[in-house]
Amino acid sequence: MAFFLRFSGQAEAEPTVADPLVPSHVPFSSDLAGQNPIALKMTVDLPPSKPPISRRRFLSAGLYAGAGLALYSGEIERHWIEVTRRDIFVPGLPEAFDGFRVAHLSDIHMDEYTEPFLVRDAVDHINRLHPDAVFLTGDFVTRELLPKRLSIGPAWQCASILDKLECPRRYAVLGNHDVMVGAPEVTQALTDNHISVLRNASLPIERPGGRFWVAGVDDPVKGKPDPDTAIPPSIRNVSGEPIVLLCHAPDYADKLLTFSAGPSVAFMLSGHTHGGQVRLPLMMPLFLPPLGRKYVEGWYRIGATQLYVNRGLGTVGFPVRFACPPEITLHTLRKA
Length: 336
What we know:
- By secondary structure, the protein is of the alpha/beta class.
- It has a single domain, classed as Purple Acid Phosphatase, chain A, domain 2 (4-Layer Sandwich).
- The chain is built from 7 helices and 14 strands.
- A 6-stranded mixed β-sheet has the order 3-14-4-5-6-7, covered by helices on one side. Strands 8-9-10-11-13-12 form a 6-stranded mixed β-sheet.
- The chain is globular, with a radius of gyration of 35 Å.
- The N terminus is likely disordered.
């Protein structure tokens, strides 16, 4: 007992040595387990908590973000023309055409949302590229719920702007909207403005030392395409005279191979899809029309045939583009 009292008294008399690892303001408690100092209470200063965001502030932020996205996709990217340059290696291409440059434009959709200044801007872009030929793959106008006669005017307006192209070699096919508006009327507007319209037909492009053929088929969605008429036996698989085909709808490339003329096509150019028009991350493109759901944009190879799908200039349904700007493609033909 004396020892215990002496030990206790000594313990009470000894000065407390501060642990350098424990803040000096931390209190110890000896009120647990029979006055043994085994319980440690520590006070921690936490930063003040922020009040939760209110529903009103959350909705306001969403509205601002949505307005910004609408402004960008509707007024900035929709008018932001991108020029894509690509070399196309064509088997049998004559030496005279090695380096021949083709400007490719599609889906203007005049009048619905495409303003005249945007078409003029596209023409200016093409003129600065100095191509050897211009290929236009359809949908110059848009078929709306209005009477057809009201869409004929935009066809003439579009064609008159395209007539400002400085390149004299201009070839076109019709798209599904052109056929719905009126194939004869749209064709006349284009031909009267010095654009050759190929409806199941073909024409040679010639230079001293060689030639190749540009063929075009009627729109596969609303028209009556006939590759065997467009590419007659007399020009198929002629050595040193490759065939380039214009066809509005890209997915027709698979059916093309079932025709006798199909395997003779070295290169096919299409549009129709607008590249999907709106491409959100981890999601399918928003705009995928019939016969435009497999080959959406860019370059493909189907058997021996190469295919390029242009994203187009205009829009349909709604005047927006996102992660999918309008496109002019400059194809440089190379001898394979």
